[in-house]
Design goal:
- With 180 residues, this protein is mostly helical.
- It has 9 helices and no strands.
């Protein structure tokens, strides 16, 4: 009974870490800075691209098999990508505002290496966490965009999520190296 309780707590921690990883990699504050007052076409682009990301996440195991790498090795590489991008958000300059085709920019917002890597890394531990995490990130982005808030807190939220991405990315690298 003790072993099962410990395993359940471990699964819950893994699930929460996966959700945090996906939310940090998505970084809704970055979306708000890049597209203040995003309209419905931009949000539609986010939704379409989120579907593509989830399709890649669902195909994680065949992709890992095709690449002939182990899951820990894949998670290590994903962690490195996420940590590097998070570091840029943490100390880098703010993103420039995208103008032009809202649908296309919305899709490009989402189909980034860090989001795809996070969704695929999450899928190695269970596809449900990946799907829920992406849905949560889409919802957070849409809520922030609907608020049309451009307060001084937005760059700090981007940096906070960047720091979280760095920490979780380093954790993925460490856990991957320990597993190999």
């Amino acid at each position: 009974a003790v072993g099962r309780g410990r395993a359940a707590r471990g699964d819950a921690v893994t699930g929460l870490a996966t959700l945090a990883l996906l939310l940090a990699a998505w970084n809704p504050a970055l979306f708000l800075e890049r597209s203040p007052g995003a309209g419905p076409r931009r949000m539609l682009g986010w939704g379409i691209a989120a579907g593509l990301v989830l399709a890649l996440a669902a195909a994680t195991q065949p992709i890992i098999d095709l690449l002939d790498v182990s899951e820990p090795t894949f998670r290590t590489a994903a962690g490195a990508v996420i940590a590097l991008v998070g570091a840029r958000w943490l100390v880098g300059s703010p993103p420039r505002v995208d103008r032009g085709d809202e649908l296309g920019h919305g899709m490009m917002d989402v189909t980034t290496p860090e989001i795809v890597a996070a969704a695929m890394a999450a899928a190695t531990g269970g596809w449900g966490f990946s799907a829920f995490g992406v849905a949560l990130a889409v919802a957070a982005s849409m809520l922030l965009a609907a608020s049309s808030s451009e307060g001084a807190w937005v760059p700090w939220l981007r940096r906070l999520l960047g720091g979280l991405a760095v920490g979780l990315g380093i954790f993925l690298v460490y856990a991957g190296i320990r597993s190999v």
